[in-house]
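Feature request, filed as a ticket because there's no other form

It would be nice if the structure record came with a short human-readable summary line next to the tokens. Right now we just get the raw output. Example of a typical job, pasted below so the devs can see what we mean:
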Amino acid sequence: MAEEQKPAETDIAELKKELADIKRDMMRQELEDIKREKMRQELEEIKAEQAQKQVYYEHYVPRLSILTVIMATATLLAAGYIIGTLYPFNLVAEVERYLVGYGLPIGASLLLAIVSLVLFFIGLGLVTMAKK
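Raw output as currently delivered:
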């Protein structure tokens, strides 16, 4: 009988040890679950704070305005007038007379062509802006 009691005591001790291991594992898993839950909640709070702090910028979208249309029309008309009157009304000779007084090294026809192209592209840009 003594022999039968000894294995029973060792079995009980082993069972107690296994039970303690199981409890320890369960407690560790519970603690890990609690930590995960806390970390998830903290992460959600941080994300909510960042979402509140975020500032959304709207891109500037040009709108059709009367001023834009008037400026576009005026620049396109000026460019057309300069190009149209370059030779028929002897505009080149008039501008050349003014340029000689200042001693500029550029010809009148080239200067008028550059000015008209600049005005044309400004007008075209304003029309494009007004369309968008």
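Something like this underneath would help us a lot:
The chain has four helices and no strands.
The two ends are 101 Å apart (CA to CA).
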